[in-house]
Amino acid sequence: MAMATSTSAIPAAEQAELIELSKKAAAYQAVKDHLDPAAHRLVGIGSGSTVVYVVDAIAALDRDATSRMLFFPTGDQSRGLIEAAGLPLGSVSQLPVAAKLDVCFDGADEVDEDLNLIKGGGACLFQEKIVATASRRFVCVADYRKLSPRLGTQWKQGIPIEVLPLAAKRVLSELENLGALGPQIRQGLPKKAGPVVTDNSMWLIDAPFKPLLLPRDKANGVQGGAGEDGLWTVDALADQLIRIPGIVEHGLFYGKNGLEVKAGEGGAQKPVAAYFGMADGSVQVRNA
């Protein structure tokens, strides 16, 4: 991550501007490469600061084309962005079960070498996963800080987990048994006293774990991956988390991408491509 650390000597205001420019560059390139105004009609719009530029890029397209599309939000923030841009608003709840969105654009808190993601820093992970799995192709858009060799390396806040409020304390105990390092209920301070409440009226737990292994790590002789000493592979931990009563959904996006899912299979959580705006102004693309 030399690119990210090379910005540490830049004054804070300039660094913030650089980050915003990198997000914008990644968003505009991703939309250019993956949104076909002539063919696409159903488009998913994720949540977070980078998605603001995705919507800007789409809104800059020919209005005759975008007026024939429907845009499906992942929460209140993206719904507001779609409406403010004057784009037609859709709802996944009204989408026929057999129908698929053509493409979905969303951000991430961290992306590993296999395009597994941690999402949910903005508290919209459940609806983000619903929209991603309802899409033929999910395209991730982020800045250079989100690039990581393994999940849990750069993003230290922990895996966001959406939970039923009445089960939150029991879920914390279960997470500690799995090796979570000080999981906590996310608080709304300083803007709100008490726990953060999601768009689904749930609470969030942030659960840090040791960096999550990839299949190649075990192939290269790394021991563990099934919880031994708190060490997990991405897939093993994701499968274990969703089994805990009280957990509604977690922020690990893993498994297959849209290119790998066959007809009749469930939706894909991983992106087909991830776009990273870099500190030097370029855009780095990782394809599945």
From TrEMBL:
The keyword RNA-binding does not apply. Keywords: Isomerase. It comes from the Eukaryota. Gene3D superfamilies: 3.30.70.260, 3.40.50.1360. The keyword Isomerase applies. GO terms for biological process: D-ribose metabolic process; pentose-phosphate shunt, non-oxidative branch. Pathway: Carbohydrate degradation; pentose phosphate pathway; D-ribose 5-phosphate from D-ribulose 5-phosphate (non-oxidative stage): step 1/1. SUPFAM superfamilies: D-ribose-5-phosphate isomerase (RpiA), lid domain, NagB/RpiA/CoA transferase-like. One of its GO terms (molecular function) is ribose-5-phosphate isomerase activity. Its EC number is 5.3.1.6. One of its GO terms (cellular component) is cytoplasm. It catalyses: aldehydo-D-ribose 5-phosphate = D-ribulose 5-phosphate. Belongs to the ribose 5-phosphate isomerase family. This is Ribose-5-phosphate isomerase. It comes from Thyridium curvatum.
